[in-house]
Amino acid sequence: MREVVIVEGVRSAVGRRKGMYANTRPDELAALVLEELVNRAGIEKGAVEDIILGCVSQVAEQGGNVARTAALIAGFPDYVPGVTIDRQCGSSQQAVHFGAQAILAGDMDIVIAGGVESMTRVPMFSNMQGAKPSKKLTEQYEIINQGLSAERIAEKWNFSREQLDAFSVQSHERAQQAIQNGHYEREIVPVEVESADGEKQLVSVDEGPRPGTTEEVLGGLKTVFDENGVITAGNASQMSDGASAVLLMSREKADELGLKPKARIVARAVVGSDPTLMLTGPIAATRKVLEKAGLQIGDMDRYEVNEAFAPVPLAWLNDIGADPEKLNVNGGAIALGHPLGATGTKLLVSLLHELERIEGRYGLLAICEGMGMANATIIERL
Fold it and tell me: Is the pLDDT reported for residue 153 higher than 90?
């Protein structure tokens, strides 16, 4: 039976919205990541059979199939195709699943899967152009924004503002500790950026984590979506810019090329979930992917569950019965940021390197997605 392996994975540092990548085009940022990926793996660009990138706001500099334009900018031969997909916040994780499926089917042997998003240069919802949901949809479902969904999850699971803020402080502390200890250095591609006044510098450190983030500081923030609610800018993910990618191969092709894979993809799952609560999908997706893998949550050495809002990973922990000491150990999106289309493979790259660092075996990745969906992936370090 064919097996899909991850040969290499890289990402850019994540920039705050209107931060260090404010003057960097997303197609060019993605191109830098694609080029570094094949360079580190030591393969020819022309050997890649497809490039699948996730991107949520596919307009302006992210329009026109950014996977294809980024590949051409990066110098891939014109016969290497590219396709851009949107499964909301899990877009690049879905890119991995599609790439793995192509390899398992025998259609391809070498695929790049990744994602890009500049929430600075292509603002969130700009692709919607002010369009409202269809009445045929709203007659069937209550369609609300994700912030209100997070409020409802907090209410349903009885999470207090203090619990959410404490989790958020932990995210910042873990992220800052990881940066200080150099845990992210190997996975990040340094990027040359230019300021508005033309000054150039090389950036290679995530811009999001804020020193001095305390429960007292977060407790002073106003709620954003509900005056009497619990969700603030401090216990939600940051809007961000970034790019990430992994190189997938069949095990046979990796062996033929003399490459040593970092991990294998054990199981993949995708689910739909309540489009009103919207963000609870990782619970069902985790159960499904564990069942497909024939594994238990206790078999996982690390898990990454995207911190879209603090109630999301907390509800996941509660219902899955997972170990909080294995969850987002180097910080999550509350501290590090959430560049929508890039987040899936960003987290996968970090999970891969964390398993290598601790010599762990299994890792799990789960991400909630807009309109009520979630992807989950299990990898095994080799």
Answer: yes
